[in-house]
Write a structure and sequence with these properties.
The chain has helices at residues 8-12, 31-42, 55-69, 73-76, 110-120, 124-152, 162-166, 251-256, 311-319, and strands spanning 2-3, 22-24, 45-49, 86-92, 97-107, 173-179, 198-205, 211-216, 222-227, 233-237, 245-249, 266-271, 276-283, 290-291, 309-310. The chain has 334 residues and is α+β, with helices and mostly antiparallel strands. It has an eight-stranded mixed beta sheet. Helix 2 (31-42) crosses helix 6 (124-152). It is globular, with a radius of gyration of 19 Å. The chain binds gibberellin A4. Gibberellin A4 (GA4) binds at residues 84, 92-93, 95, 97, 105, 173, 175, 205, 207-208, 282, 318-319, 322-323.
């Protein structure tokens, strides 16, 4: 878990209200690489600005998602049930988890997107164009960040992480979430301000993949688990910023760095008066990839923390478990 404190990362870069690092990607290397590593060690989470993804594309993706969710239920259901990819309402995974949301889970592969676009959109070429452009842009951003991480960690192979995402067989996903307001009548408090009542929209979990890139509309909801200086666990709200991306370390990156980088636990709240939309790219390796601590991350003083496993084995395990399970613990070295 991450510690909420006066952070060395925050002394070097801007931080938002709860001390989450804000990293300006236009900063020169190797400075920026070092700050990214610090943020991933301390928080497993940070926000990026000056990321190079066009605002037009971000808005087109948001509009495309909004149009999809405004379709009648039977049109959205043409995406097929989430087994595991498709359109889902409230049910998450296969083991009884529920949330206050509807979602579309897509493989990031262009032919998958093209195939789904034909059944769920009245303008399939435009849908495919926007989603593929967006996936291309966030995949590129993920690879850049992973290369900077590798550089900051002083790995001999600075493409060690990014080649897994740029592989044509990468198993990356795109998740599009819509958290409807759960009480439209409860939109004003006594003094006329928006009432802040919330419910858990998507429960506590860590992301299983290598890296996640999230963008939301201007509605709050994302929270990350931290511990305060007294050692108590606290949910720290992350202020929304539709111009930025929020990056988090996934379980596989924690395993490959032998536990140096932290796969942060997080959740999303649904709010009573405003619809929240979030779009998350989950950067993953090909199914057959063997995941193990990189040799540069292991030494006699720092022995291997996890047994090697394939992404396919990890996925099989994760689908057998509840959302909140700390599944990487099952792969700890004996
Ligand atoms: C959490 C991160 C991603 O949203 C996701 C989720 C997946 C799903 O919704 O199908 C899982 C969850 C996530 C981890 C445990 C399993 C699988 C729901 C669930 C209960 C798409 C992913 O890859 O793992």
């Amino acid at each position: 878990m991450v510690v909420l404190s006066t952070s060395p990362v925050c002394n070097q870069t801007a931080c938002n209200a709860v001390g989450i690092p804000v990293i300006d990607l236009s900063r020169p290397r190797p400075d920026v690489s070092r700050i990214i590593v610090e943020a991933c060690k301390e928080f497993g989470f940070f926000k990026v600005i000056n990321h190079g993804v066009s605002k037009t594309l971000m808005e087109q993706m948001e509009n495309t998602a909004r149009e999809f969710f405004s379709l009648p239920a039977q049109e959205k259901e043409k995406a097929g049930p989430p087994t595991p990819l498709g359109y889902g309402v409230r049910n998450i995974g296969f083991n009884g988890d529920v949330g206050e949301l509807e979602y579309l889970l897509l493989h990031a592969n262009p032919s998958f997107i093209h195939h789904k676009a034909k059944v769920i959109s009245k303008e399939p070429s435009f849908f495919s164009y926007v989603v593929n452009e967006y996936v291309g842009a966030v995949r590129h951003l993920s690879c850049e960040i992973l290369d900077m991480l590798a550089e900051g960690l002083k790995l001999r192979n600075t493409k060690a992480f990014s080649t897994l995402l740029s592989d044509l067989e990468s198993d990356s996903l795109l998740r599009i979430n819509h958290y409807p307001p759960w009480n439209k009548n409860n939109n004003l408090s006594m003094n006329g301000n928006k009432c802040g009542s919330t419910r858990i929209g998507f429960g506590e979990h860590s992301d299983p993949q290598i890296i996640s890139v999230l963008r939301s509309n201007d509605v709050e909801g994302l929270q990350i688990l931290m511990s305060d200086p007294g050692g108590n666990s606290v949910w720290a709200p992350v202020a929304p910023d539709p111009d930025a991306f929020f990056i988090n370390v996934g379980d596989l990156l924690q395993a490959m760095t032998n536990g140096r980088l932290l796969s942060v636990r997080h959740r999303a709240m649904a709010n009573s008066h405003e619809a929240r939309q979030s779009i998350i790219f989950f950067g993953a390796p090909p199914l057959h990839s063997l995941i193990s601590s990189l040799p540069d991350m292991v030494s006699p003083a720092d022995p291997r923390k996890y047994n090697p496993f394939t992404w396919s084995e990890y996925k099989k395990t994760m689908y057998q478990l509840r959302l909140s399970h700390s599944r990487l613990d099952l792969f700890q070295a004996d």
